[in-house]
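pasting input
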Amino acid sequence: MGRRAAIVGFGQTKGSSSRRDVTGVELINEAVRAALADAGLGIGDIDAVVIGNMDHFEGVNYVDMWSVEGSGGVMKPVFKVTTGGTTGTSVAISAYYHVASGMFDRVLAIGWEKNSESDTTGAIITAYDPFWERPNMAGAIGGLAVDASRYMHDYGATERDGARVTVRERLHALNNPFAHLQQEWMRGKDAVFLVDALVASKENKVLAYPLRMSDMCPRTDAAAALIFAAEGTAEKIAPIPAWVLAVANRHNFVYYGDLDWSRNETLEAAAKKVFATAGIREPLKEVDVCELYLPYSYAGLAWMESIGFCGPGQGPQLLWDGVTDMDGELPVNPSGGVMSSNPIGATGIIRVGEAAIQIMRKAGTRQVGKDVNVAMATGFGGCYWADVMLLGRKKPV
Amino acid sequence: MSGKKAFLEGRIKVPYKWYAGETGSRFLSALRDGCELWGTRCPGCGRVYVPAAKNCWECFRPADEWVQVSDTGTVESFTIARRPDEMFGLAPPVVYGLIRLGGAGGSLLHIIGGVNPDDVRVGMQVKAVYAEKRSGRILDIKYFAPLGE
């Protein structure tokens, strides 16, 4: 388990389609300053920096070097971590390892992306094998559409179920001043009305069956940073530190054809592992809030089942019952989630940070209206890879 | 198939559009429009960044005092690239060097021209020669040439 560690600071920039006023380095700087201010620390208090993004999204191969003006990494240990969509959560887990190992007391974790500066699909294709999948691969949307098709086939889910996930994320995003997509027209409207509107809309084009525009995350420019601190230090920095209870990551195969499309087996395994470590037997009852990396709507059905919040095929029922809404038993993505902001390398950091501020009671207008003792954050990426981090109000045993 | 080693030839093709940001844009505009070089000074340590940087690397605070710097400087070190390379856009021999402009805290990586490569020396004084057609890029400085005798 290592030394106990907690999150003591979080900062992020507001998500937007294009931040032309700053370079990537300057964007990183804004998030780092916000995180340091949140923790009441200076850059001199930081012992090491972990940073991540996806190289081909900005065409810069060496972000750990290139970013020091922004990261504050000058003359400090700086480590780069890149694991695709899970980059942000992997950066967070790596920063946690730095502290848990006993080697560093205060570690800065940074994720960022300026998706506006490249072609996201073109960049994602470079992640695939040049012989076997790159010539045929159509980027991220196709793979997710295959996932959705299979789920609809297996359990009879409909596009209304997918749209209901979108509606939840969009309504939640209206509470989050940092969210990229702010669909004001939805404010105060009934969920069923909004689902009907999305499904009936002719402007809501199909991208890859069954996914329409409203089923997908946006491309976002943003940066985010977290500060992890060791037991003994954390309590002095933060009135309520968010303690790391457990982390797990699972990576599986490289080729799409090797995956079991009837389930998300990496998320299933990683969730099982963190629940076992934290002694959680009934996840739906014992987890108080979630920030899940759901890059498209149907993930909010199937992946709830993979985590173990409900049984196979029960995702839609959980959703329509309102269990995952802000006032439900298990609020999912009070921030509006990935569906409302996806600055890829920062996305996982934001999940962890948003989970942490629910415990720290710093979530402002998106603070859930109940006690938060256990919060869960996930990352998704690669060819169906999963990262999971469980945070708690109390120190782990 | 026997004896043949299968291979693919490829090239990563991803389009990019990098924004210089407000600080970089101000530097590039002054270069393009007025053949002027501007830096930013950190109010904390006094270091001057050329090209302009938004934040001081050492002090981790905004370097927000704009100062014009001389376009004459000293060659801190240099080399002569003599071998052509398909991935390198300039025709050899290319002298490239580190030029410390008056007042700057660091050197600028740029090209040294208007001189026989064999005559370039560390410590030589050089001055910016500007491109006739300028478009807001670092190569709006065509090269740095030795100061006249």
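fyi Residues 20 and 28 of chain B are 9 Å apart (CA to CA).
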